[in-house]
Every structure is written in structure tokens, then in C-alpha cells.
Backbone:
């Protein structure tokens, strides 16, 4: 069974956020495994960049403090930043609201050779308005269809879409919010809006279940990673990305010239004065 098999979203309820269904059972073991995972990730990412034909889009969704930024830092930090395109999505600006909700997303899709990372994504334009009662019924279903069509379009154009829901418990979120307030170096991450969203916790969980049911497709499946343990979250996402790149099997392109002839020319070249 692969890492993707373990974490693939199903019609069942969400897993326990503190569960460890596969992989290391202790933090020390995960820290031992990460260097090898990182080395292989780095090699495959370089091959993808050199090949310059296909791309990966890693979508990270989750409640506040679920670790989207931490995942980017610990997992994508193991590869060459030259081949990574990171984009964080915040509340749409007035200018963005004048366009279709996918307009701002299309502009930052990864180019060939890149690993794109969305810290939040187009799913915010389903989750938030649904919870706030601004989107329901036919309009909600239409957005699901538009998202599925958009992701199918990406896949057809050579982008492998990897969508991960970082699933945290309300108890762990409360602990992390409190830690942010108590640490002057992390206090900037906290806003009073975090508590407002927390009060709608169960509404957001229902909204996420709807997203998982309606938009986990063959072209762009969802994976649910238990995120109460940061080290386990990092290991799981690294494993999902690694399996994805392994399956893509990117390779270095043919140089397009006679290597032996070029070596002979180099050997015959005179030393510069």
C-alpha cells in the first residue's frame, strides 16, 4: 500500500487528527527518514525542472494553525527554490472580486518544470462563502463543477494536481493559538479573526466534507493528512509529493549535441591567458 492509498480521501468521515495510519510512529524516526526523502525529492525536482515539460501543483488547505506554512518550510525547503513557485491566497481584493473567482488562480499556476504550491487556494472561494451563508444550492454546485473543470484542464496540460487537507483537532488548534499569543516572535501570526472562524468550527468541517466529496476526482484527488503532530504532517506530505514525482519519473533531456565531440573540443581548447 502506498502513502497515497493511505491518505486518499474517501466517502467515510474524516480521520482522527492525531492518528498515524502509516509511516513512523515516533518523531525521532521521522527525523531519521526525512534526509533520505529530501535527497530524493531534490533529485526528482531537478529532473522535473531540467525536463521542462510538466509541472506539479501542491494545494494545501486546512483550518488556521493546521501547518500550511510549516509544511512549505519543512518539505519544500528540502528542494531547490529555483524550481518552486509559492503562492499564498488571502481574502480577495476589490480588484480580484471584479473577476471570476478562478481569475487570480489561473495567473499563478505553475509553469512547466515547476512545483507550484498554493497556501490556501481556490477552495477558499467555496469554503468561506458557504460557511457565511453567501453560497448555497445551485451556485455552490456550479462552483464545484467549475473547479473540477479547471483542475481537469490543468491535468490535461501536464500539471499533476496534488491536493492535501491538513486535518487538525480543535483542541490542538486552541493550544497553537495560545502559543502564538504567548510568543512575541509568533504573535504577528495571530488575529482576532482566528477566534471568529473557530466559533464556526463545525460549519467549516461540514464545508470541508462537502469539498472532499464533490471535488476529489481521478484528475485531482484529495488526500487527508492528520496534522496534530507537526513532524508526522511533514513526513506525510513529503511522502505524498515524493510518490507523485516518482510516478511522473521526470528525466534529464537529451542535450541535443554530440557529447564526445564537445569533450574533444574542450580538451583541444587553449588555456586562457
Residues:
Amino acid at each position: 500500500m502506498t502513502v497515497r492509498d493511505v491518505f486518499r480521501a474517501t466517502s467515510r468521515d474524516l480521520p482522527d487528527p492525531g492518528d498515524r495510519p502509516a509511516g513512523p510512529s515516533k518523531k525521532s524516526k521521522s527525523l531519521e527518514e526525512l534526509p533520505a526523502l529530501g535527497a530524493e525529492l531534490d533529485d526528482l525536482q531537478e529532473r522535473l525542472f531540467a525536463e521542462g515539460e510538466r509541472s506539479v501543483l501542491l494545494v494545501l488547505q486546512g483550518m488556521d494553525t493546521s501547518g500550511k506554512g510549516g509544511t512549505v518550510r519543512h518539505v519544500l525547503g528540502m528542494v531547490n527554490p529555483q524550481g518552486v513557485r509559492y503562492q499564498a491566497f488571502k481574502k480577495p481584493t476589490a480588484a480580484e472580486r471584479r473577476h471570476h473567482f478562478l481569475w487570480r488562480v489561473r495567473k499563478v499556476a505553475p509553469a512547466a518544470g515547476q512545483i507550484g504550491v498554493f497556501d490556501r487556494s481556490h477552495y477558499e472561494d467555496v469554503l468561506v462563502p458557504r460557511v457565511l451563508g453567501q453560497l448555497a444550492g445551485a451556485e455552490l454546485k456550479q462552483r464545484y463543477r467549475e473547479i473540477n473543470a479547471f483542475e481537469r484542464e490543468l491535468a490535461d496540460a501536464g500539471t499533476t494536481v496534488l491536493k492535501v487537507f491538513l486535518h487538525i483537532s480543535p483542541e490542538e488548534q486552541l493550544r497553537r493559538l495560545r502559543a502564538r499569543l504567548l510568543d512575541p516572535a509568533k504573535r504577528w501570526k495571530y488575529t482576532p479573526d482566528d477566534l471568529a472562524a473557530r466559533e464556526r468550527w463545525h460549519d467549516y468541517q461540514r464545508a470541508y466534507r462537502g469539498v472532499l466529496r464533490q471535488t476529489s476526482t481521478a484528475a485531482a484527488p484529495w488526500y487527508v493528512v492528520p496534522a496534530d503532530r507537526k513532524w508526522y504532517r511533514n513526513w506525510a506530505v513529503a511522502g505524498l509529493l515524493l510518490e507523485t514525482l516518482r510516478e511522473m519519473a521526470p528525466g534529464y533531456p537529451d542535450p541535443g549535441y554530440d557529447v564526445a565531440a564537445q569533450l574533444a573540443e574542450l580538451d583541444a581548447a587553449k588555456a586562457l591567458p
About this structure: The mean pLDDT is 95. The longest strand covers residues 159-167. The longest helix spans residues 27-51. The CA atoms of residues 4 and 240 lie 6 Å apart.
